[in-house]
Batch of 2 targets.
Target 1
Amino acid sequence: MLADMTIQNFAIVKSLELEFSKGMTAITGETGAGKSISIDALGLCLGDRADANMVRPGEKRAEITASFTLEQNSAARRWLQDNELEDGDDCILRRVITKEGRSRAYINGNPVPASQQKALGQLLINVHGQHAHQQLLRPEHQITLLDQYAGHQSLLDKMASRYQRWRRAKNELKALIKKKDDLDAQQQLLEYQVGELNELALGEDEYQQIEEEHKRLSNSGDIAMTSQAVVDLLSDNEDANALNLLNAAQQRLVELAALDSQFEPLATLIEEARIQAQEASQEVTSYLDRLDMDPQRLQYLDARMSTIMSLSRKHHVQPEALYQTHQQLIQELDKLAHNDEAIEQLQADVDAHFAACLDTAEKLSKSRRRYARELNKLITQSMHQLSMEHGTFEIQVENKADTHLSPLGGDAVAFLVSTNPGQPLQPLARVASGGELSRISLAIQVITAQKVETPSLIFDEVDVGISGPTAAIVGKLLRQLGQSTQVMCVTHLPQVAGCGHQQMFVAKQTEKGTTTTRMYPLARDERINELARLLGGSEITERTLANAEDLLVAA
């Protein structure tokens, strides 16, 4: 629940420190005093959008801090743990807005995006605004209220997930069918290109091998001539060759080694050089014996290299990459060849996802109809209590999943009402007057709030359009709700305010041209005076004071 809140330089609030209690807290004050300012400030800590106009004129920044206790709020504790923001059984939300309009948000001292504050705020407190009865006329709000009361969030999550998969598969199928004609033309081009490359039948490393062989055959004359010259220098030249010279040098070193042992390693080195020169001569001679100067082979290689170069230019790749390009085109052609199979498979997937959606939508619809029947009885009874003795309320749930599927399922939900005997049930907007709509809205909010897990509820002037005995019943309903839930109610009705377990007063004062708002709890005598003011206006008499005390006693 909300434990306390500190407001600094927000709107016309200079400084305000508030402590909140369990049960129902009534918040009253003169018109224009700023009874809703604390709720607006709290909204910032709950992730509402910030604006520079919220900063008190003449100040650099506004700062709001709200503290919550989480002993009985397992959902909020789990959220904090999942986001690594937990800090025991308490939670502190803080929001800072500068006069330039910049905003910073904090959870337990950790800077976070405002979106995270908003996600957590939905688990901490539920605000029912003074225009809630207008939202009640919107079909999307009606289905949301029913779903909140039913509490079937797991079904809603499953429905949304299955709907997403179905829509994704459906869009993929639509795109594939739309591209089919283009793919057919592309397939013909690929078949021609692959046919050309199949005819070439280029091996993976063949181009490098061809290039090397072509270079060798093209230069075979020079290779033979130079190789023979090398053999002559090494061994075949009768006048002088390397082997003869090394033999002579080796013999001289052997003679020197006999005179001085230091020449022995040198003689060994020359011997090794002679052996290597002899092996090199033999290898070059062997190469000459194997050297093929086949002109027909060279002609074949010329033609094949020319074809490879031509196809490489055609496909805008290097000759070395032509083999890989061939393989890629084969794979693309294979995919296109199985295009019809892909469409059939995707159609089967779409049908399967749609069937899964229909199954979940039907379960969701059954759950809604079940809880709708429960709500019908409770809201009808509450209407009778709120001076609508002949009123009847009914939630119509119609499953249209076959034609109107959405992430929320396939139900069309409508709130129907009859306020007079013999009057048929009709949509809420057609039947209810402003006052009736306010009472029905309040009944729905109080009843559905009992099923919402958030431990704190705020009602911001939801009793507009209600007076007399009806207001007293509204107060009792809110007080009853406060037995199990922290309820804060901004009200201008003494019958409602008198039902609060405690009451806070909002006052506005102006000094030296500066206006400030303050808010403080009222003791019993102060409550009686405030209730008397609400009852009698500016003129408070003994009679109004007695009536005010009667309100407290009755509560």
Note: Residues 422 and 528 are 44 Å apart (CA to CA).
Target 2
Amino acid sequence: MSSNMPPVAKKIPAERTHHGDTFIDEYAWLANKDDPDTTAYLEAENAFLKEQTAHLADLQEQVFQEIKGRTQETDLSVPSRKGAWWYFSRTEEGKQYAVSCRVPADSDAPPLITPGERLDLEQVVLDGNELAGDSPFFSVGTSAVSPDGTMLAFSTDYKGDERFTLRFKNLETGEVLPDEIADIFYGGAWSPDGSAFFYTRVDDAWRPYQVYRHTLGTQEDVLVYEEADERYWVGIGLTRSERYLVLAAGSKITSEVRILDSADHSGEFRVVRPRTTGVEYSVEHAGDFFYILHNENAENFELATAPLDAPAEWTPLIPHREDTRLLGIDAFADHAVVYFRRDGLTGLRVLPYPDGGQGWRERVEAAERNAYEIDFPEPLYDVGPAGNPEFTTRRLRLTYTSMVTPPSVYDYELDSHELILLKRRPVLGGYDPAEYEQFREWATAEDGTRVPISIVKRKDAATPAPTLLYGYGSYETSIDPGFSVARLSLLDRGFVFAVAHVRGGGEMGRRWYEDGKLTRKRNTFTDFVAAARHMKASGWSERIIARGGSAGGLLMGAVTNLAPEEFAGVVAEVPFVDALNTILDPSLPLTVIEWDEWGDPLHDPDVYAYMKSYTPYENVDGRTYPPVLAITSLNDTRVLYHEPAKWIARLRASAQGGPFLLKTEMGAGHGGRSGRYDAWREEAFALSWIIERGTA
């Protein structure tokens, strides 16, 4: 096929009529995954893409080698203690997947392990390479060791469709038990005695809606809970104290939690507080009381306490604040840690319980009076708790990163208030953070709202510079300032990298999210355009390439329609660009759940009209569009492959400019290819395309 002859998708008009509006969808046939014409079209698009990007092969290989060369391939994580063992994972040069390991614990400080070396008593818990074999795709959904350390529950996926098969391994003998359970969801929880494992199943719409209890060595599992409301999904966990099993049901806007004393794991769960529309809450066991994090009359959430025998009776501890979004609470035997967000940055607040014989209420109130926040020196950073499975400990494990500081693992000593650096991800090839600098800028949106932008560049890079501008802006998900090895291949070529923290995300609190969803969704898109224009007007940027994935791919499609002239290229990964058609179809995965995020266009004509005004697929017109690279996966169960396929077909048929390219991974899911070397090659491909667009 000639490079001048891109694939042309056939047009088979399909009529969609809702609320008096008729839309002709010529490419609806591409949703039929089993149609040979669909496969042929996707393969033709892949062939065209390969031809169009063949000249980038040397640059792709160069970028891949840069990523590989900066990565310490034989490495390991910082060990995390649980019971009598330290758990960690290894990566080995030449191998795609990590190996989970453990060693006996003989002190409170993690053992010093040299990458590539083995300890005498080291055990392999799970070898991803061995499990993957020759499969082109492999993923682990669950990897949970029983509280007594004797059994492992693990689940695997070999297609990318996120339907996992659950198995069990005896860690004392290495034997994999005959118990095998197909088609389960992520996660799960052990009973404290290791005799039973709780797991979830999904319905036809990919909604986790059932919780089952499997007793090892038996054939028939017990249905513990089934959620009938299609807006809710369920999950199951064991508290850090191992005292309670927690079964949570939640929609996008409402929570309902059930608890069960784990000593009687076959008993009946009891509701903490019945669901009330718009009220979200979570439960954390703190020994002789519960912490309750909730948003009842508290938009940015409030932290409360409740007695064990009356968990619905919430007494405020940390009241709501307009400037601080409370994100989570981790409870330990003699302290608690609150995870929060303020001024667009994350933070940690320690509540130390006093010594003495007070009752729990007096003790926790004293802890709040003596609470303090942990300070960090950089102007931009991201910090959070991590790897703290032990209930009784005087150390807090946390992770820290910034746009110039590689991911770092610290232990925070509660007694001395000392931060102990345990590991900073090695960046090979002479990386020096002093050669880079990070900034916070503020764009002004159409309605006057100030939109934060995080920026990183080499100190010696001239500006204005080619710029990669990233965005997401949905589900209250925050794109916090973080480090990327792959990004160095852009920065070292003189690029500026920036993140537009647009509304719909959570960077500036719950109101920031509320102002970028439902019938305020357009703020997400206009914020991003405002950020791009600010980057140019303030002298940072010349040619801007926009990038986003999943709901961020919807953002990419929307801003390409809104302001195509602002962008020299657009990379949309697994993009949600056919959002209206998807949200109109309740039989599709996750649609009903998503109505709380986007609105219900099926039953509400105003929502239908509003969504139609911004969804990318419906709004492609004959203007000149920038080059577009859309990347998808055939087995994606979250954003189906046909969304970008239809979008690219419509761009090619209706718009000027381009080129419009589609890359379909024919054997992967939402996260793309699974092996780390494969993932590096995929990133090198995208970065080589970005580099060309930025320097053309």
Note: The longest strand covers residues 176-184.
